[in-house]
């Protein structure tokens, strides 16, 4: 049976719905006529159809792959693709010490969780059995879909469950993928500024791959507008906190249609609010990323020991479809999707989810308080816009690598007040960091959230690392390298979308190559009091390429004057790194030839933010003590050597560096 075939009745029904949408336009929603009931159809043993008269969803039975999504006559998914290659959930995993495997999760048991005129929820469960060892991720996975009466979209979520007795596993990625109709969806939108017509898969296939396969120079696009541009899906990444709505618009057919992936909460995503991940990209593809090692590396893998039990709900996310009657209004589909996001956020946590593992609002708790900062001997000040969150108990700063539990983050107000709502009961630590200050805060007492519980922590005080007064500093302590010098891209390797937007300049391809062009003969030298970090501090300490196409370590210098040196005394060099990729940063004071560096980070990091056009990866703070015998009155030089060569993508991004004089002795 052809998947695409629909009964004459269904066809007429959809035509009627589409026509009524077009005729009534935006009024449709405000008119209080009751929308049709939701229907579940399982007549075809290999397919399940759920339909609310606005949206119709076809799923393979019992695999639970999304075969078709209709809000009109045509499938919005790519019907040329196989049934398991249109809308699916996949996992990248490995047994410890073995190679990673990519697996699409195919259900084996279909069941109906709810089916009445107001809501249909269906489940496609894949239960792990010992015969699957080595070939299938050791986790029971339940894929759920919800369609409600009157909704312009459907909800999707997944329950991951490890009962006792399962083998060890590391999970590097969990996501839901949607592949849209290639012939119709050309316009992609991720934010108010990141939106435009996109090249096609064919444009990429006929282009020239660059330093890695994801980056392609479009040498032979059928459309003039894309010729000579670079396309790379990593240019469309977002931080979790901003990865809330993205998708595609088709302007073909009777009326423009938008397809949007809406993520109303980050609680189920891992590694905190500034973890970056993919959104939508050429395909046309839209992703819902739950877990990945992107911009973080294997340090954020979900690692389970043998027999370790686990349960977590990923989602729900909302797949929203909208339309407007007139092509000239197609851009309004984006603003309508943004409005829909705020509707979903307002309704979060949903009270209609069938799984008892997804807790409704009345079973969750809150934490309130106020965070103050006391930096050095100064008076307390409000932790203005601090990021405050709950994550599984761990060390200070551990949330950025924490991948198993739920996380609940907000930004405090100007006065440092925070209110974290809708927390799933359980044990947590409260973590925070404050833009403008180095380091990480952790409230030392474990916090236990109970059903309906409300915890008030009152005033908390964060003492950022500091051993003495600041002598000088470079950059802004905010866990990003965005304030440093961002070169113009090679004119032959641009993405024109980012050309007029200074904020997004770091997303251009190949900026790392500009270092060797800017510093052909000698490495960067920064003179405190003379240099300006906006212009004179390259955004990343990358390797230097040689004409023979090999890559050399680099040594940057910070030169500064010191007067009235305190002898004896311990100075402190604070080095906050925003990203580290296969790098070893060595620090020497005034003696480049010292065989042993004064300090070395050791070989660290795999966040790959240089290659992936991130402006940060994982945050690392190094507090380095330097005795005054290593410093002199007058001119001093700190040598920063990134001692690993080999690849253009090895290196570090600095967030901020500071030299502190010895502690002031209180008498
Ligand atoms: C370039 O594009 C043209 C027209 O689309 C096509 O016929 C040709 O095969 C393409 N060349 C390459 C090298 O892909
Ligand atoms: C669509 O919008 C354009 C521009 O606003 C207008 O000129 C045109 O008449 C509209 N078409 C229809 C069918 O309403
Ligand atoms: C400097 O630090 C070292 C190591 O912590 C310590 O032994 C020494 O007493 C300190 N010197 C001064 C002058 O504080």
From TrEMBL:
<feature type="domain" description="Rhamnogalacturonan lyase">
    <location>
        <begin position="470"/>
        <end position="659"/>
    </location>
</feature>
<dbReference type="InterPro" id="IPR051850">
    <property type="entry name" value="Polysacch_Lyase_4"/>
</dbReference>
<protein>
    <recommendedName>
        <fullName>rhamnogalacturonan endolyase</fullName>
        <ecNumber>4.2.2.23</ecNumber>
    </recommendedName>
</protein>
<keyword id="KW-0964">Secreted</keyword>
<keyword id="KW-0456">Lyase</keyword>
<comment type="similarity">
    <text>Belongs to the polysaccharide lyase 4 family.</text>
</comment>
<dbReference type="GO" id="GO:0005975">
    <property type="term" value="P:carbohydrate metabolic process"/>
</dbReference>
<dbReference type="GO" id="GO:0102210">
    <property type="term" value="F:rhamnogalacturonan endolyase activity"/>
</dbReference>
<dbReference type="GO" id="GO:0030246">
    <property type="term" value="F:carbohydrate binding"/>
</dbReference>
<dbReference type="InterPro" id="IPR008979">
    <property type="entry name" value="Galactose-bd-like_sf"/>
</dbReference>
<dbReference type="InterPro" id="IPR014718">
    <property type="entry name" value="GH-type_carb-bd"/>
</dbReference>
<feature type="domain" description="Rhamnogalacturonan lyase">
    <location>
        <begin position="384"/>
        <end position="456"/>
    </location>
</feature>
<dbReference type="InterPro" id="IPR013784">
    <property type="entry name" value="Carb-bd-like_fold"/>
</dbReference>
<dbReference type="InterPro" id="IPR029413">
    <property type="entry name" value="RG-lyase_II"/>
</dbReference>
<dbReference type="InterPro" id="IPR010325">
    <property type="entry name" value="Rhamnogal_lyase"/>
</dbReference>
<dbReference type="InterPro" id="IPR011013">
    <property type="entry name" value="Gal_mutarotase_sf_dom"/>
</dbReference>
<keyword id="KW-0732">Signal</keyword>
<dbReference type="Pfam" id="PF14686">
    <property type="entry name" value="fn3_3"/>
</dbReference>
<dbReference type="Pfam" id="PF14683">
    <property type="entry name" value="CBM-like"/>
</dbReference>
<dbReference type="InterPro" id="IPR029411">
    <property type="entry name" value="RG-lyase_III"/>
</dbReference>
<dbReference type="GO" id="GO:0005576">
    <property type="term" value="C:extracellular region"/>
</dbReference>
<dbReference type="Pfam" id="PF06045">
    <property type="entry name" value="Rhamnogal_lyase"/>
</dbReference>
